[in-house]
Specification:
Shape: globular
CATH topology: Alpha-Beta Plaits
Largest sheet: 2 strands, antiparallel
Bound molecules: iron/sulfur cluster
Radius of gyration: 11 Å
Number of helices: 1
Order of helices and strands: EEEHE
Number of domains: 1
CATH architecture: 2-Layer Sandwich
Helix content: 10-25%
Strand content: 15-25%
Mean pLDDT: 87
Low-confidence stretches: 72-82
Distance between the termini: 22 Å
Strand order of the largest sheet: 1-4
Number of strands: 4
CATH class: Alpha Beta
Oligomer: single chain
Length: 82
């Protein structure tokens, strides 16, 4: 499971960054960025799922490496834009 962010949808509210350091606000444009493309570890999945769930514009999602689809609790969002 990996974290994805739709930067076009993000409004920079910063809520997600209070749950996990996998998400941070980019200094250049004030929008979210995923700090690591690594596999989410079991001990951090709850915090990442909370961050995904709390985003006010549903800009975050979790992608299952095995199926390519969204995981449990993940918001259905489009992949990163062009
Ligand atoms: S909570 Fe959503 S809108 Fe706020 S910074 Fe994170 S991705 Fe962007």
């Amino acid at each position: 499971m990996r974290a994805k962010a739709d930067r076009d949808a993000c409004i920079g509210a910063g809520v997600c960054t209070t749950y996990t350091n996998l998400f941070a606000i980019d200094d250049d444009d004030g929008k979210v960025r995923v700090t690591s493309e690594r596999e989410i570890q079991p001990d951090e999945i709850d915090d990442v799922e909370d961050a995904v769930a709390m985003c006010p514009v549903v800009a975050l999602s979790l992608v299952d490496d095995h199926t390519g689809g969204s995981g449990d609790g993940a918001a259905a969002t489009s992949e990163k834009g062009t």
